[in-house]
Amino acid sequence: AQKVTQAQTEISVVEKEDVTLDCVYETRDTTYYLFWYKQPPSGELVFLIRRNSFDEQNEISGRYSWNFQKSTSSFNFTITASQVVDSAVYFCALSEAERDDKIIFGKGTRLHILP
Amino acid sequence: GAVVSQHPSRVICKSGTSVKIECRSLDFQATTMFWYRQFPKQSLMLMATSNEGSKATYEQGVEKDKFLINHASLTLSTLTVTSAHPEDSSFYICSATRQGGQKTQYFGPGTRLLVL
């Protein structure tokens, strides 16, 4: 069965600190996709990244970076030099190739960046 | 860009009435549109998947007669909550994937439904 676990329900850090959001997934498929979405207080989901299971390279985009480790079934997300505008709920998600239109979301991590 | 809009953004209705929510892809044609439901401080749960011109596919446990989905064109899908009750109060979010593109889902801003 497919499952996404975000163990951190809520995190608070002071502005400019680095913060890592953890994501662990379960799937029986060898081909799958992993996602991160940001949901600010307005409610709209913002797509951050999509990674397929064959691409284990870490990715950096500005202050955001992602660490994909198949050996531990993890896809962690790090924000460097956090800013108040980063405050949001972040969802990690998974879809399997067999049914790649269905995204299974984790429960989300609520991130508070304190000024 | 890939912009998805929803209308209305917020709706309050009386118990027993029906509410229609629209989801539009503004700058692309959407192969498939999805409807999700999100309870406060909870994750998103997929309700149904709809393709233009065909019947929607509902997830297990979602009543298709309760949540009517119509996907009339490549840019518009509607969700109608029929005979709404207070337990239907929730945040409803749609998403869409581009025709011919990767299957990345682009999400709308959501519709907050409150049934009194």
Give a quick precis of the structure.
The complex is a heterodimer of chains A (115) and B (116). Chain A is an all-beta fold.
Report on the architecture of this protein.
- The complex is a heterodimer of chains A (115) and B (116).
- Chain A has strands at residues 3-5, 10-14, 19-21, 24-26, 32-39, 46-52, 59-61, 64-69, 74-79, 88-96, 99-105, 109-114.
- With 115 residues, chain A is an all-beta fold.
- In chain A, strands 2, 5, 6, 10, 11 and 12 form a six-stranded mixed sheet that branches. A four-stranded antiparallel sheet of chain A has the order 3-9-8-7, with no helix packed on it. In chain A, strands 1-4 form a two-stranded antiparallel ribbon.
- Chain A starts with a strand and ends with a strand.
- The model of chain A has no long low-confidence stretch (mean pLDDT 93).
- Chain B has 116 residues and is an all-beta fold.
- Chain B is built from no helices and eleven strands.
- Chain B has strands spanning 4-7, 10-13, 19-25, 30-38, 44-51, 57-58, 67-73, 76-81, 90-98, 106-107, 111-115.
- Chain B is globular, with a radius of gyration of 13 Å.
- Chain B starts with a strand and ends with a strand.
- In chain B, 35% of the residues are buried.
- Chain A binds chain B through residues 33, 37, 42-47, 50, 91, 95, 100-103, 105-108, 110, and chain B through 32, 34, 41-46, 49, 91, 93, 95, 97, 102-110, 112.
Tags for this model:
heterodimer; A: 115 residues; mainly beta; six-stranded mixed beta sheet; 12 strands; B: 116 residues; seven-stranded mixed beta sheet; four-stranded antiparallel beta sheet; globular
